Amino acid sequence: MMEWLQKCKYAHSPYSVRHGWGQNLFMVNAPKVNKTKIAGWSVKFWYDELARNGVPEENVMTRKVFGRGIGHYSQVVWQNSNKIGCGIMWCERMTYAGCEYSPAGNFIGALIYEKGEPCSKCDCKGCTCDKEDGLCVTP
């Protein structure tokens, strides 16, 4: 991710170099802003697509749902993505943030995430439940 962000271009890297990883990008016209602050802003911006554009009750990715502009949100919460790598790059006039997710999400016809009780299916080897966040944590 960092190698791509160092190009200081607001464009996704070619899918062929991502090796099956999904990707979210964010930029702000604010050079040299605290990187922790930028990280928070980027995730909030992606997640806020839910409030701005909505997802149907059945929570399935369709072309229509994707066309609403929720692809960043859905990649953040995609139930099968279990690895993430993020970076932030200060450039001359802009600051860029990006995250890559594996396996990638946003597959047409697939469930974005299964609704249920938090941590009710922490079935990966050695996983534990982070009760505060309601997430399964891998060792």
Automatic annotation (TrEMBL):
Stored Pfam families: CAP
This protein's GO CC annotations: extracellular region
Protein's UniProt name: SCP domain-containing protein
Family annotation (InterPro entries): Allrgn_V5/Tpx1_CS, CAP_dom, CAP_sf, CRISP-related
Domain SCP residues, every copy: 1-109
Lineage top rank: taxon: Eukaryota
Coiled-coil regions, chain positions: none
CDD domains, per database record: CAP_euk
